[in-house]
Amino acid sequence: MPITQAQIDKIVSLAKSYGATRLILFGSSIDTPAQARDVDIACDGITGWKLYELAARLEEELHTPLDLIPLSPPSRFTKRIESKGRIIL
After folding, report:
1. How far apart are CA 68 and CA 70, in angstroms?
2. For labelling alongside 57, which of 11, 15, 17, 74 has CA 20 to 30 A away?
3. What is the residue extent of each domain of the chain?
């Protein structure tokens, strides 16, 4: 299930409305798009329950499973996402 530009645009638009300042697409959506079963997004600018609200709303709007993780605080995992992922915001 390759992610479409329309889906990316919807992710960016909704994330901005929640206060996102940075979004990075990572994982199978960019590594092996034809085999991807979900969309993996890392973000900055959204904290607390708002992050969970956004994740639920994105899954509902996109009709696809989604993992949304914060980029802060930095970790080895987030550093890897930053180096290998695709910045979409």
Report:
1. 7
2. 74
3. 18-87
Residue % of the chain over a pLDDT of 70: 99
Instruction: Record the tokens describing residue 4, joined without a space.
Output: 């479409």
CB-based contact 86:25 (threshold 8 Å):
yes
pLDDT of residue 36: 85
Residue type, position 23, single letter: L
Q: Cβ of 10: how many Cβ atoms within 10 Å?
A: 14
Residue 73 is predicted with a pLDDT of 94
Please tell me whether residue 78 adopts helix, strand or coil conformation: helix
At 45, which amino acid appears?
G
* Residue 1 pLDDT greater than 70, yes or no: no
User: How far is 36 from 74, CA to CA, in rounded Å?
Assistant: 26
CB 27 within 8 A of CB 50: no
| C-beta of residue 58 within 8 angstroms of C-beta of residue 68 | yes
